[in-house]
């Protein structure tokens, strides 16, 4: 917390600089000081020179800052870039679901082993009510939405599917540890391998997943090979 800055020591604040704060917004954020989701106030301040506690001269503005409503710690505005715990959980669920759908879309839904592996991954990611039927229905809906997911008559999904993956994974990647990003790719790879070796389309999708997760090409290739081992 910012405090008055006396010019004659802590006990004799004859003159100093005082900051007067004004609240310009509020909301919920992840407080690094508390280690959890808290309410915040977004504040700007005016600095004034004081004499015997009386503000006399303006000394400019300060902020904006983000103040935790619980611990009252001050943070820079970039503290709001970190998702709340609830938002992070939702982003992770969406990422797992999108990767599973992308792999299914590239390799087809005819294999029961692939469908079962995809459902297991999505449920583990937080969507407990996911079923094979719901995944297949979504794949069929994607195929029917030709204006968004079909690039031409011979290449289903294509660039538009890549956009979906980037939209789901890129905002999440900076907030995941390397092991978390690798785990997402491995889940997709194991779905693809549930019915046998990778197809070229599955390889292409997993390469997109790796790029969206900010994994190096060599790491993506290594993880795709690692997924072949029993687990």
In brief, what are we looking at here?
The protein is an alpha+beta fold and about 230 residues long. It is built from eight helices and five strands, in the order E-E-E-E-E-H-H-H-H-H-H-H-H.
Describe this protein's structure.
- This protein has 8 helices and 5 strands, in the order βββββαααααααα.
- The two termini are 50 Å apart.
- The protein has a 5-stranded antiparallel β-sheet with strand order 1-2-3-4-5, with no helix packed on it.
- It is elongated, with a radius of gyration of 26 Å.
- With 231 residues, it is an alpha+beta fold.
Layout of SSEs?
Layout: E1 5-6, E2 15-31, E3 36-51, E4 54-68, E5 74-75, H1 85-107, H2 112-124, H3 132-144, H4 146-149, H5 158-169, H6 178-193, H7 200-212, H8 217-226
Antiparallel strand pairs: 1-2, 2-3, 3-4, 4-5
Helix pairs in contact: 1-2, 1-5, 1-6, 1-7, 2-6, 5-7, 6-7, 6-8, 7-8
């Amino acid at each position: 917390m910012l405090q008055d800055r006396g010019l004659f020591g802590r006990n004799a604040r004859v003159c100093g600089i005082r900051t007067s704060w004004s609240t310009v917004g509020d909301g919920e954020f992840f407080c690094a000081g508390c280690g959890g989701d808290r309410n915040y106030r977004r504040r700007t301040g005016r600095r004034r020179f004081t004499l015997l506690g009386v503000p006399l001269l303006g000394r400019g503005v300060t902020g904006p800052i983000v103040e935790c409503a619980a611990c009252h710690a001050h943070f820079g505005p970039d503290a709001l870039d970190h998702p709340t715990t609830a938002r992070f959980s939702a982003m992770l669920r969406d990422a797992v679901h999108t990767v599973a759908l992308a792999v299914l879309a590239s390799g087809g839904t005819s294999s029961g082993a692939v469908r079962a592996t995809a459902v297991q991954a999505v449920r583990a990611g937080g969507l407990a009510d996911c079923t094979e039927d719901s995944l297949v229905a979504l794949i069929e809906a994607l195929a029917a939405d030709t204006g968004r997911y079909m690039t031409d008559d011979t290449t289903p999904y294509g660039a538009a599917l890549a956009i979906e993956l980037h939209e789901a994974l890129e905002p999440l990647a900076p907030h995941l540890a390397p092991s978390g990003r690798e785990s997402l790719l491995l889940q997709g790879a194991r779905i693809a391998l549930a019915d046998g070796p990778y197809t070229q389309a599955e390889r292409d999708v997993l390469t997109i997943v790796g790029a969206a997760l900010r994994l190096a090409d060599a790491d993506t290739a290594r993880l795709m090979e690692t997924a072949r081992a029993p687990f």
